[in-house]
Amino acid sequence: MWRQAKWDEPLIFEYKEKGRRGMLIPREDEIRKAVSVNIPDKIRREREAELPELSELEVIRHYIRLSQMSFGVDTGMMPLGSCTMKYNPKVEELSQSLVENLHPLQDISTVQGALEMLYEMQEWIAEITGMDKCSFQVPAGSAGELAGVLMIKKYHEEKGRRRDEMLVADTAHGTNPASAAMAGFKVVYIKSNNRGLVDLDILKEVVNENVAGFMLTNPNTLGLFEEEILEISKVIHSVDGVLYYDGANLNGILGVARPGDMGFDVVHVNLHKTFAVPHGGGGPGAGAICAKGEMAEYLPYPIVEKSSKGYSLYYPKESIGKISTFFGNVGNVARAYTYILGLGPQGVSAVGKMSTVATNYLISKLRGIRGLELPFPGKYRKHEVVFSAKPLMNDTGVTAFDVAKALLDRGFYAPTIYFPPIVDEALMIEPTETETRETLDKFANALKEILAEAYSDPKKISSTPLNTSVGRLDQVTANHPTTVTPTYLVKKLREENKIGALR
Amino acid sequence: MEMHPWLPNLGDLREMLKEIGVKDVEELFSDIPKEIVLKRELNVGYGRPLSEYEIARRLEELSEMNAKLLYPPFLGGGVCPHYVPYAVKMIISRSEFYTAYTPYQPEANQGLLQALFEYQSYMAELLQMEVVNSSLYDWGGALAEAILMVNRINGKKKVIVPTNANPNHLKVAETWVKGKGIELVKVKYNEEGKIDVEDLEKKLTDDIGAVYLQTPNFFGVFETEVEGVVELARKKGALTIMGVNPLALALIKPPGEYNVDIAIGDAQELGIPLSMGGPSLGVFATRWDAKLVRQMPGRIVGLTKDSFGKEGFTLILQTREQFARREKATSNITTNEALMAIAVAVYLSLLGRNGLKELAEEVYLRSHYATKLVESRGIGKRKFLGDFFEEVTLTFPVEYQRIHEKLLKAGLHGGLGIDDYSAVFCFTEVHPKKAIDLLVEKVEEVVKNVEAS
Predict the structure, then answer these.
(1) What Enzyme Commission number does this protein have (chain A) (predicted)?
(2) Which of A222, A302, B326, B428 sits most deeply, having the most CB atoms within 10 A of its CB?
């Protein structure tokens, strides 16, 4: 049975010993003799920051213990829907030697190797998405969306028209409407039809000269392919709107179909999902923002260009500007580069197929389990599937939340839950192509056991997890104005009665 | 393809298809219109899957194309070269950290959450700001988010930014806030390289939402009138945003002591490699004021208790976030720079109280030593006379481009040229005295040569 470490590891600030240190700093005594520190009084720090004083081993042991109370893809299957938690090949770490010591403002003549890598990646991601040009300015998916909607905004402005509305599917990732709003658009939701797809009739009704574009994920967050995509594209383009592809779900069709061929004009790709860059406990990721035709001239700068003299930087004519301070998350673009090298054209082309096979295999194992319901049945899913635990909740009171916690106790990470919002008690499962068939079997069995137990002994499920480092966390204490504690400083100040409630 | 280490089910395909109940893979894609189904392999990579050995060779080949420098570049401008200890690299290579994702299931990710809480707490202590989020992308992005936050709070559409702030940060902010129609009002700097308070006063009208200032600024110079600027802004009903290099905070007064509303910066200098500028780590903090905290972007980890009364951690104040609030969210950010935040926590733990101050002093001293050397040899002088940290703007009697080229030939990468005769140089603990002496010697050669001809 799976058990997670339960260290009673204090906060690092609670190690109160003095007079130790964890690293030495190179010191130039001759320089110290030649000049001295002379900060103007007015701005000098009076009270030193209270940092702990620890030996190297103490620091290492502290963080190793913390790592043992965490869970990654290398620990066990992470079926988080829409997050594409695939295996991160270890060779990726080798790629850091190419870029880690390069400064972003170096003379471009000194970084030609890194630029060649970026250039090849631009070409490959353009080929994969069916776009003309790509920029790696965007450090993650939502930054890609922001870049995309800003491009759409500028495109219409250059044509001398004001368009205020951005269409978003009701199954869209929450980032879509958030990004559109950040760019100043009014968000208009397009309802799904009874097949879980964009309702074309509604779309036709809504589309008019005030619509700037449509942000769409395909396959959508239900794992369903928008089969009327060519018609959708026609409708949007009939008013010169821009069709935007949210690349979060690209893994389900990688090598099978390309957004560019479907009629999309602008695409973002999450290199940390589809191209196996490790998720880092929440980040850093890396992204690409790509476009075709006229839209390519609006991409954020710089883009790497190749000529007989080598690699240089290109500034698209109508560029929206910069999204990152420098070149985006180059370190992670390099990781994705090694992933593509390792898979080769055959491997990359097989990803969509194998991830789709994994999803549908899992569905066949889970179909008909008492308590689970597959909304919008009858269609094959692509990279992910959304089940509803609504029957279970109605029958037993056990929720999707409880099922998630019970999975933790069995050594699996939980699926994404309560998303998309159009499915009640949603369990959004994305197995990816890197989990073996046996692991998929084990996951399906664990879920079956949990559901069976929920019917026989619901209390047992709703008191999980027990095998993790801690039990369920008190969200009220965590968020209440009188107890909310975002930093150790707040904890100290509260203990000293120096701050009040966060109101 | 029959087998591949990252595609384990190729050999089980037939049985899996049978279990699904389809005759071939294509059937699973029968809902995709035929005319858009790709009928060829993607043209990516090098013709076939490469082995790890071959990938390593290709990376070496590319590395060979990068210039070999004798020492790390003398470049700053937002990120600076530093040494990252192996202990930091080892910890962030722990699989449980680096292959995890956002801790949506806090019970299984306590260690990750605690490490992020410790990062937030380290920053809070350095900044003396009570609330810190668990990371944004980089400094430019943090500035953009700060400006958008100000707009949500007071609805104003103008923000003052000084022209001595990092121009790349301003470019990023400009791009991000354009959609909301927010305008950046530029304020001049004076002959000391500091924000021109008179010009600021003139431009600080009632419709200004916030005043931004950066210290040490783009020229490396400390701003000395922060107190006055904050007071002016407050009188006019504008919020204040202060950009800081967290390393400098070992020596200078933290933003919290000026009572600024929002503090931002980049923590790259505390344990993150250059990587051509990314991944980096955007720092974002606010004062203890619900009006500010409720509008903050990004994830925040907080302390709580579990069902057994044991201390624990979880993501807090999530009603601000995109998955809960969609178009009403405070930001679209999801994936952030969490692993870099852990690197910073480990680095600061290793440095500790004494190490941090020593490092900041070392960096300060080296930049002053280099400047003294240049000035005493009569081959250049400071463009601005204000005290500086780590970076310094030097003006030479010959065109900087000539110096730059000569340095490159000698295997050194000089500073960032900002006009025909001046450049911003950065000096840190990875530039030993020997390197600085060599740099000055090479500069001297160019200057003397030009003067002789």
Answers:
(1) 1.4.4.2
(2) A222
User: Are residue A201 and residue A305 in the same domain, yes or no?
Assistant: yes
Task: List chain A residues with CB under 8 Å of B31.
Answer: 224-225, 227, 379-380
Over residues A347-373, the pLDDT tens digits come to 999 999 999 999 999 999 999 999 999
A175 is a domain residue = yes
The A residues from 427 to 466 touching B (CB cutoff 8 Å) are 433-437, 465
Domain tally, chain B? 3
Which residues of chain A neighbour B37 with C-beta distances below 8 Å? Answer: 256-257
Whether A498 and chain B come into contact, CB under 8 Å, resolves to no
Same domain membership, residue B184 and residue B321: yes
Q: Check whether residue B335 and residue B372 sit in a common domain.
A: no
| Contact of A383 with B39, CB cutoff 8 Å | no
Q: Is A186 helix (H, G, I), strand (E, B) or coil?
A: strand
Of A181, A356, A491, the CB nearest to B28: A356
Angstrom distances, CA of residue A78 to CA of A439, A451, B333: 11, 19, 21
Residue B450 binned pLDDT confidence (cut-offs 50, 70, 90):
confident
Chain A residues close to B368, C-beta within 8 Å: 35
Distance CA A242, CA B183 (A): 26
Give the number of other CB atoms < 10 A from CB of residue A503: 8
Amino acid symbol at B361: E
Residue A159 domain boundaries? 90-343
pLDDT digits (tens, 9 = 90+) for A252-279: 999 999 999 999 999 999 999 999 999 9
**pLDDT at site B321:** 84
Rounded to the nearest angstrom, the gap between the alpha carbon of residue B347 and the centroid of all alpha carbons in its chain is 16
For residue B348, list chain A residues with Cβ-Cβ distance below 8 A.
51
- Same-domain status, A192 and A295: yes
A413 at interface of B, judged by CB pairs closer than 8 A: yes
Do B380 and B403 lie in a common domain? yes
- For A366-416, the pLDDT digits (tens) are 999 999 999 999 999 999 999 999 999 999 999 999 999 999 999 999 999
Å from A188 to nearest chain B CA? Answer: 10
Question: Using CB atoms and an 8 Å cut-off, which of residues 44-63 of chain B contact chain A?
Answer: 44-50, 52, 54-56, 58-59, 61-63
How many CB pairs (< 8 A) connect A and B?
736
For B434, the domain range is 353-452
State whether B175 and A321 contact (CB < 8 Å): yes
- A406 and A499, same domain (yes or no): no
CA distances from A442 to A93, A354, A457, B19 (A): 30, 18, 21, 15
Contact B224, B362 (CB under 8 A): no
Answer yes or no: do B336 and B361 share one domain. no
CATH number at residue A270: 3.40.640.10
B426 strand-pairing partners: B391
Would you say residue B451 has pLDDT above 90? no
Question: Touching check for A416 and chain B: CB below 8 Å?
Answer: yes
Given this model, what pLDDT does residue B177 score? 97
